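User: Please fill in residues for this 316-position structure.
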């Protein structure tokens, strides 16, 4: 599926069904995981466990880095040795979860749980304890839901500024960023419908802008070399134009002209795409499949969020 058409599907998906307009929280692990005896190899494991806990609570954590974070501090409470052969180590850990705004440093709440792990070494015992975090997911649910309420309050207070920023981005032609920013406004906010309308407008403008560029390129390329040998390249280029674009009829006319001149059949794959786009049921499925993939790709292209670690360390 071509990139331009994906943008269109994303926009339609966000209008038809909320994909990104839900609270987004990122798992956050401090860069120094060796604090209080936690081995460095646990970093990715901890992040994965935090992400899994968020997912169990219906929170999207896969759209790049959010300003809102779920983090945890691990402390080794006690170690003991088994009387078995071989001797094993039992590590008892205290985990202090915290959720809040990682940029301005506001903590929305904390929660303590204890976990235990057994291993042949200290590191193995601690790693196995971290693996047992899944069993405590329900305990953290209350904390997460409390944080979600505070995050919604944040968007209610800042939705006006987000709308203004989205409009500014659209005016400057930064449609993908505008879509991403606007779609962060949850449906619990009064401005949600306005944000969704702007998303639709931004998406259409994005599709029209890129489709016009492709059409101009195709016209120039064909004018410079109107031969049968070059025709297939032009058809391939034109097939990238979304059927919903304002210039689609012009593109179709050019395609027909080239096919007639070069005696080519229209690209069957492209015909299949157009047919699918005209089938509402299939198009709806395509919208829903495409939207979050594009959102994730865009989120990953953004600059890394700089968290206020100095204040975050005071949350516990």
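Assistant: Residues filled in for all 316 positions:
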């Amino acid at each position: 599926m071509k990139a331009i058409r994906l943008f269109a599907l994303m926009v339609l998906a966000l209008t038809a069904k909320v994909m990104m307009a839900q609270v987004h929280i990122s798992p956050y692990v401090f860069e120094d995981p060796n604090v209080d005896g936690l081995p460095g190899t646990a970093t990715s494991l901890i992040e994965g466990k935090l992400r899994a806990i968020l997912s169990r609570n219906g929170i999207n954590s896969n759209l790049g880095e959010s300003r809102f974070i779920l983090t945890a501090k691990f402390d080794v409470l006690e170690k003991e040795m088994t009387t078995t052969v071989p001797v094993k180590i039992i590590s008892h850990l205290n985990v202090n979860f915290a959720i809040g705004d990682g940029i301005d440093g506001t903590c929305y709440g904390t929660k303590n749980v204890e976990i235990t792990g057994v291993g042949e070494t200290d590191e193995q015992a601690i790693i196995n304890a971290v693996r047992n975090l899944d069993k405590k997911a329900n305990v953290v649910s209350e904390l997460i839901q409390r944080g979600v309420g505070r995050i919604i309050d944040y968007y209610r207070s800042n939705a006006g500024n987000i709308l203004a920023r989205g409009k500014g981005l659209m005016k400057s032609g930064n449609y993908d960023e505008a879509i991403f920013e606007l779609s962060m406004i949850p449906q619990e906010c009064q401005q949600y419908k306005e944000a969704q309308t702007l998303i639709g407008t931004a998406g259409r403008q994005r599709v029209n802008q890129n489709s016009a560029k492709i059409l101009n390129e195709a016209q120039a390329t064909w004018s410079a070399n109107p031969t049968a040998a070059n025709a297939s390249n032009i058809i391939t280029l034109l097939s990238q134009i979304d059927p919903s674009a304002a210039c689609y009829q012009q593109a179709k006319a050019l395609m027909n002209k080239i096919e007639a001149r070069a005696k080519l059949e229209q690209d069957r794959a492209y015909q299949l795409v157009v047919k699918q786009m005209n089938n509402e049921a299939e198009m709806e499925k395509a919208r829903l499949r495409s939207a979050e993939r594009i959102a994730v790709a865009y989120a990953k292209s953004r600059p890394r969020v700089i968290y206020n670690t100095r204040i975050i360390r005071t949350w516990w």
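For context: Residues 137-171 form the longest helix (35 residues).
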